[in-house]
Write a structure and sequence with these properties.
Layout: H1 3-13, H2 16-24, H3 39-45, H4 49-57, H5 72-79, H6 82-98, H7 101-106, H8 113-118, E1 122-123, E2 127-129, E3 135-138, H9 142-152, E4 158-162, H10 168-174, E5 180-185, H11 188-196, E6 205-209, H12 212-215, E7 222-227, H13 234-247, E8 248-256, H14 265-281, E9 284-292, E10 314-322, H15 323-326
Parallel strand pairs: 4-5, 4-7, 5-6, 7-8
Antiparallel strand pairs: 1-2, 2-3, 8-10, 9-10
Helix pairs in contact: 1-2, 1-3, 2-4, 3-4, 3-5, 4-6, 5-6, 6-14, 9-10
Length: 327
């Protein structure tokens, strides 16, 4: 048995002394054994928290994936090993705060916003697709968008939505008859379709064409804000959050499409925690409301779609408000 496999075996057995000795002798902590698992995955799977800690301290990659697309955090989560899970979650958050690796990798859907904006999009009854058959928005999201609309419209008043897509959230917002409803949309074909389908003629609707970064001077103070753009990096969402205090009234409600890392349960938890932390630093509390989505997502939903951007059973809907107001 080679040294890497020995390390996997020791991690699996929770033999902290042997793990330490093997690491000191130069064993590769990122080694994949015949099962396609790393020492960290074995330790997490069996709940050996002290070994998990040792391996992470030695540089074991917390975000390595097994052949079935599971990370060490997924193994700990599935087996209910809370201590190991907490150590891995903390390691993931710290790493993402510094490097942002999964966010950049996982959200590189359209390569960059500029590419998507120059792309041709196609509309059908149940999806909006880009030129590479990747879904921009799909009809299965309708109940989620209705829940987002309910959250941001709960205080009435003036509502802002960044990103129209198929108009699911905006249609839901209209049902609450807000005093004003501002929509920012950057894609020319989506914008043309909005005009063609009468959105510009609605009394309380104001459409602003352009990237949100470019139209900030035209925006005001709002009672509710929803953010859902396609083809942007996580950094763009973070950048938008920096402007929240200038756009959201002190008692206002903010929400966003919480879809990053939608193919991996543990990475998604890391991302949810990360955003909550970063919003907290800006003075906002984040409540994550679990919504089951498994029944909306049969295989037929993804027919003709290249990128299954959501594969989890539960969607966590973020409701953010000023910490002072939420106390």
């Amino acid at each position: 048995m080679d040294v890497g496999d020995q390390l996997c075996e020791a991690a699996k057995n929770g033999d902290a002394g042997k793990v330490k000795a093997l690491i000191e002798s130069g064993a590769d902590v990122s080694h994949f054994d015949g099962e396609g698992l790393t020492p960290l995955m074995h330790a997490a799977k069996h709940g050996h928290a002290d070994v998990v800690k040792k391996l992470l301290e030695a540089g074991a990659p917390w975000n390595a994936l097994s052949p079935s697309n599971l990370s060490a955090g997924d193994f700990a989560m599935d087996a209910g090993h809370q201590e190991a899970f907490d150590i891995l979650l903390n390691a993931g958050i710290q790493a993402e705060l510094v490097l942002g690796t999964i966010a950049r990798k996982d959200n590189k859907i359209g390569d960059c916003n500029g590419d998507y904006l120059e792309d041709r999009v196609s509309f059908s009854e149940d999806k909006l697709m880009d030129a590479e058959s990747k879904a921009v928005m799909m009809a299965w999201e309708k109940p989620l968008m209705e829940a987002h609309a309910k959250a941001v419209c709960s205080g009435g008043g003036h509502i802002l939505n960044i990103g129209f897509g198929m108009g699911l959230v905006d249609t839901a917002i209209q049902q609450y008859a807000p005093a004003s409803h501002t929509i920012v949309e950057a894609h020319p074909e989506v914008y043309e379709r909005m005009i063609r389908t009468g959105w510009a003629e609605k009394d309380n609707v104001k459409i602003i064409f352009g990237r949100w970064q470019d139209v900030l001077p035209q925006l005001e103070l709002y009672d509710g804000i929803f953010f859902d753009t396609y083809g942007e990096y996580y950094e763009d969402l973070r950048e938008f959050h920096q402007y929240l205090p200038a756009l959201l009234k002190p008692e206002g409600i903010y929400s966003f499409f919480n879809g990053l890392c939608g193919g991996n349960p543990f990475f998604h938890v890391v991302y949810c925690q990360l955003v909550s932390l970063e919003l907290e630093n800006l003075g906002y509390s984040t409540q994550l409301i679990p919504l089951p989505v498994k029944n909306c997502l049969g295989e037929e939903v993804w027919e003709g779609v290249k990128h299954k951007y959501w594969q989890l059973d539960t969607y966590y809907l973020p409701v953010c408000q000023s910490i002072q107001d939420s106390e």
